[in-house]
Write a sequence for this structure.
């Protein structure tokens, strides 16, 4: 089992993100079910944060498709490493639009990643657990108006 987390910039920030997220989710749910990939996608003010898990070969094939996807650019890998267990088994690429929250800052995300990689005090499972706790917050859909887990 392998984990890949990355951030990217929406290519056309002037487009309405809702239909784009719906399209991404529809295609991703089909492809990821076929490829045994699970995960979650966050959008925040023109930026994506995606965390996916699956067999390494499947994630490499997904990454090859992602870097060619014209809907986003400036992809930066945050984490790319083996994990012991699948943590997002119930999440088949649900998307959350967090545009009304504080900014997701690439520098902050990279600093967290660097601390993790240097100190190994936060395991990939811990990273996933933080995301899972966030995703299961009561009222998340109403709070963010997101296309979340149904």
């Amino acid at each position: 089992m392998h984990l890949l987390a990355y951030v990217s910039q929406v290519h056309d920030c002037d487009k309405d993100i809702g239909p784009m997220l719906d399209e991404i989710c529809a295609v991703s749910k089909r492809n990821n079910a076929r490829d045994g990939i699970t995960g979650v996608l966050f959008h925040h003010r023109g930026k994506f944060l995606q965390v996916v898990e699956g067999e390494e070969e499947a994630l490499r094939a997904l990454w090859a498709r992602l870097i060619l996807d014209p809907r986003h650019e400036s992809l930066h890998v945050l984490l790319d490493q083996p994990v012991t267990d699948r943590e997002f088994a119930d999440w088949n690429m649900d998307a959350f639009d967090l545009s009304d929250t504080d900014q997701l800052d690439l520098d902050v995300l990279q600093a967290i990643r660097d601390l993790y990689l240097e100190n190994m005090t936060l395991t990939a499972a811990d990273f996933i657990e933080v995301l899972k706790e966030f995703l299961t917050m009561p009222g998340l859909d109403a709070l963010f108006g997101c296309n979340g887990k149904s």
